[in-house]
Structures are given as structure tokens and as C-alpha cells.
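Sharing a chain and its predicted structure for anyone who wants a worked example. Both blocks are below, sequence first, C-alpha cells second.
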Amino acid sequence: MPVNSLRGSVKTLGPGWHGHFNFRTNYHSFPFNYLLNISASESDLKRIHALILRNGSYHSLPVLRKLFTLGCFLLPTMDYGQKLFDELPKSDVFLWNTLIRGYANVGPCQKALILYKNMHFLGLLPDSYTFPFVIRSCVVVSALREGKEVHCNIIKNGFDSDVFVQSALVTMYSQSGEMVNSELVFDKMLVRNTVSWTAMISGYVQNGFSEKGLAVFREMLASGTQVNIVTLISILPACANFEFSNLGKSIHAYGVKLGLDKYINLANCLISFYARCGHVEAASSLFDLIEIRNLVTWNSMITAYVQNDDAENAINIFMRMQTENVQIDYITMVGVISACSKLGALSSGKLVHEVVKNKGLDKNISIQNALINMYARCGDIGLARKVFEILPHKSVISYTAMIGAYAADGNGQKALELFSIMKNKEIRPNSLTFTAILTACRHSGLIEEGRKCFESMMRDYSIVPCLEHCTCLVDLFGRGGCLMEAYELVESMPIRTDMVVWGSMLTACRLYRNVEVAEAVAEKLFQLDSENFTFYVLMSNMYAEAGRWEDVERVRKLMKYKGLKKIPGHSLVEGNEFQSSSRLKFPERGSVAAL
């Protein structure tokens, strides 16, 4: 193409382009590549596309590849890239891979799976660049069966030793909850890079195997593999409890040493980590140090306060967001609604509900579920039911929230009726659903119904009982006088019990004046915490009620020997409504529209 012709054509692209192009460049080597490299929008691409057509360069395969690649990666949708692909005179594996990658990145991911199948029909063999994006698409659309079929093709085509393909498989299986398959792929890896190590760590942590995740993280460090920001973000949730909090602090220091602390994503994760460890002051200090906060930062801080029962400060953060004109989203409002729920602040909760409506977020399922829970905890079961009834699509979370609302209201029969409706609609209950229904049975004294639900959970849904399930059933049996059955249940638990479970048992023993079982329970409690004043007092009182004065004296001497003293109690009594609302200066109803 003559230089003068190209110079004239570039002028047609609009102002600013002519100055970008250096015509002293070797214009014989595809000058359109330069224009494509500096393009930054769909309009730029379309103008260059028109220029290519005008100058008859549409048959140049390198130019078309470049234009098509940018059409797939530069734009927010795949419409333009798909049109370019359909107009190409011929396609090869590279072009198919580019199109599949584009759909895997911006969606819809289902289209990437369709393209993968079309490749096979056309006789094109996928390569190591095809499979990672197809596997990622399987994860996004929860297509595990199709993902396993892809895995078979990977083995068939000899790419099962490719580190990028293997890393994608580790992620697919772990995000589908199949950690055994994830481990099998990971263990067979001859070469592991940062991505593969991080995928395995993330898989363990997301599936609740924190200690295994920490073990793999230590192996990664020992292997000399460089960690990145994603690795640190993946491992920090595993440290988010008291036992591993010091390790989390060390990871924080390690991130600072690597210079990764400047990244906002890591800072947000650290706020969540410190909050979950109960160090809300550290989370707040970190929040204050961040110069440029994004929405996730604000939401993380609201959640941090809610998790640590500081609902007032959670609402204060929300008010700061309004003052600083920070755009809110549904996660923000779920946090604020939860804060109102913890405070039992019905009138403030109603005001927040109005804010939700004004922001157009009232159709969001997470917000609707949070509202159900908030109204129930604030004692207005009617409003909770009203929100539930208008839900266009009721999910397992929605049913669980409403069952929990009936449980909090002490209406076990209504909870059981709704649970039955849920099952009839073939909505599969989860672990939290059973926690809610067992709580409802406990509050209403429905022993036989609670026993049947517990058995059904294991038999019909293959849900392994967790501590919350067992605590509910033990308390239900204990309140109903089935002390030996409750004791045998605790002894047979596959998980480690805590003081809450045994403490509930001891209280039930006193209620029914069963000293023999109480002594066995007390022995378990003293093994867990030999310094707890309350347990000794309960046993002393039970001995006194049974007229066993020698045992009373023995317990009192033991308390004196251990130096145990009663800790003064305190109570918090609010006024007619949300005591702190005046201090928080929550907006009045008339000013809600301003939010």
C-alpha cells in the first residue's frame, strides 16, 4: 500500500489518529497491525475494519487474525468478535481457540462449550490452549458431567501432563466439591507452577479443609515456588480462626515483604481475615490506612462490624458511604439489614427497606432473604411472611430463611408445614435448612418430629451432621427429658463436641434432677474447661437439691482450691425501640429518598 494512500486513509479515522502513526515505520510490514495495537474501543476497531475493507487488505490473514483477536478480547461482549469469525474465509484451531477464550472470559460460557463440540464435528483437534478455557466454562455453568467428558478427551489427546490443563482440572473438581478427583489430578502433576499450587490451596479452603490448605501452602513455600496475590487471598480464609490467627498475621507480613500489600484486593481480604479472627480493631485500622477504597472495601468493613456484633458501627460505616457518595450495591444493603437484625431495630429496618426500594434493589434475592430474617428477629413475623410470599422465585435460601423465622417465633408447626411444602416442590434442603427446622422443633418441644428430621437429613440427603445440628437435637432431647438418649447422641457424634453441647446437657439434667447423668456430663465439661465457675455452681446446686451435702462441700472446697470466683454479670436493656438509633442519626422516613 502506498504511503500517501495510507496517510490519507488514516485521516479518515478521525482526529488524533494521524499523530499516532509514524510513517517512517517500515510500512511494507502490515501497517494495520500498528493501528490495531493502539486501538482502544469498539468504534476504533470498526473504523480500522472499514479502512481494511476500503484498501483491499481483507485477504491478509495476519491482519484478520489481529482484528479478530482484538474483537474477542477488547470488547465487553462477543457480538463483534462472533461476526468477524463468521465472515472469515477459513478458520483454524488458533481462531477457534480465540473465540472459545473470548466466550470463557466475557460469556455466555455455555457458548464456549457449544463451540468446543462444533470443533469436533468439523474434525479440528483441540490443543493445550483449547482445554483450559473449555474447563473454566464448565465450572462457570456448573457442567461437571461435560467437564468430565472434556477430561476424557484431554487424556485421549495426550494433554493430561500439561501443567495449565491440569491446573484447570484441579480448579474444576475442587469448585464442584469433588476434592478426591482434584487431589488425584494434583498428585499426578510432574511440574507444578504458581497457578496449580494456588488452585489446590483454594480448593481445600473453599471446601472447608483449612488445615489441608495450610499444609499445601507450606509445601508450596518449601518447593521454592513464588506465591502471588491470588495465593495469599486464597490461603488467608484458612487462617480466619483463633487457632491460626498468628499464621494469618505472618502471611500479612509476608505479603508486605513481597510488596503485595499495595493491592486493594489483598487489603480487602485482610480486613475480612482480621474481622473473622475477632480483631475488628485491626480491621478498622487497616481500613483507615487504605487511601483509595473500592466498594468491596466498604462492604468488608460493614460485614466486619456485623460479624463482631458491633452493629452500630456497621450502620455508621453505611452513613459514611452516603456522606462520601460511595455507590452501594446489594452486598452493602445485606450487611446493613443484618446490622438492624442484630439490634432488633424494627423501625430502622423498615427505613433501610425503603432505601432498598429507592435504589431498585428490592428484587434481589439475597436482600429479600435478609429482610425475612430481619423482620423475624425483630418480632414481626407478618412482615417476614409478606416478603416471602411476594418472592417470584423461592430458592432453598428463601425457604430456609422463612423456616428460621418461624423457628425464632416459636412456631414449630408452621416451620414443619413450610418444610413439607419445600420438599414437595422438589427444592432440596441443605445443611442450614436442617439447622433451621431442628431449631424450630427445639423451640416448640417437638421431639419426635425433630428426631425424624435428623434421621432424614442423613438417610435421604446424605448430609453429615455438624455441631449445630447435634446441639439442636441434644437440647431438644434434654428439654424433653430424654437425657440418656441425648447423652448417647453426644457420645456418638463424629465431630468434636464443645462446651455449648455439654452445657446444654447439664442444664437439662438439673431441670429433671438427674444427678447421675449430670455427673458424667460434668466430667466432660471439666475436661474441656476446668476453670469455668458456672459448671461447679450447677453441680453444687444439684447436689444440694438432692440432699447430698458431702458432695456440696467437696465441690465448694474444689472451687476454693482452684480460686474460682463468680464473674459479675451485666444486662443491656433498650428502651421502646432501637436505643442507639438517636446516636446513629439514622435518616428519618422523609429523608430516605435522599439516599
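Comments welcome. Confidence is low (pLDDT under 50) at residues 1-11, 15-30, 570-584, 589-594.
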